[in-house]
Amino acid sequence: MLELFLLCCIVDNGKGSKVLKIAKNNGVKGGTVFLGSGTVRNRVLEFLALDDIKKEIVLMVVKHENGKAAAEALNRELALHKPNHGIAFLVPINSLAGVHNLGKNIEVEDKAVTNSVYNAIFTVVDKGRGSFVVDAAKDAGARGATIIHARGSGIHETSTLFAMQIEPEKEIVLILAANDICSGIISSITEKLDIEEPGKGIIFSVGVSETYGLY
Predict the structure, then answer these.
(1) What ranges do the domains of the chain cover?
(2) Taking burial as the number of CB atoms within 10 A of a residue's CB, which of 49, 160, 168, 186 is the most buried?
(3) Distances from the Cα of 202 to the Cαs of 8, 103, 121, 125, in angstroms?
(4) How far apart are CA 159 and CA 180, in angstroms?
(5) Number of other residues whose CB lies within 10 A of the CB of residue 126
(6) What is the fold, at CATH topology level, of the domain defined by 4-212?
(7) At what angle do helices 130-139 and 179-192 cross, to 10 degrees?
């Protein structure tokens, strides 16, 4: 029985390869890099239309024994403790298939997060509607979000990791939120984007065990 985690690191465009190198030096076998965009709340940047920042999202499946070590190495070498240098977090994985570098016939220990301070909220919507998700989330207290463009290279890895079929022309909005505002954010997105109507989108949240780079 393996205790596995999904290690997610979100950094500025062009730094994804450095994330993978640091992680591999700490026992991580590999990962997948996705392109996305981040949002920041800054009136000057919004006025200049520069508030959409290119991001790279690196997803890695890690064993328990090296997951935290890799995350701490990323925190140290990328200076995630400094503002705007990136964020990283770990989420327990309850089931896994198709990742062969961890061995065959993997049995994953089903372990829920206890006493989690943060939740990762994932919303899947049609292309172009991710910004509306971000607006709805900010209305409920979210500080920012990352929009992952679920198309092109990497779409099959996305489908496997999130255990759902994501067709081209979709956007995944990832929001990290404290427990006390998580339900409000989900309610705001669900109501303002009519998520409960067929074909309007999917939203779910998972508990996060470790976070780095959040303020």
Answers:
(1) 4-212
(2) 186
(3) 20, 32, 11, 7
(4) 29
(5) 13
(6) Alpha-Beta Plaits (3.30.70)
(7) 130
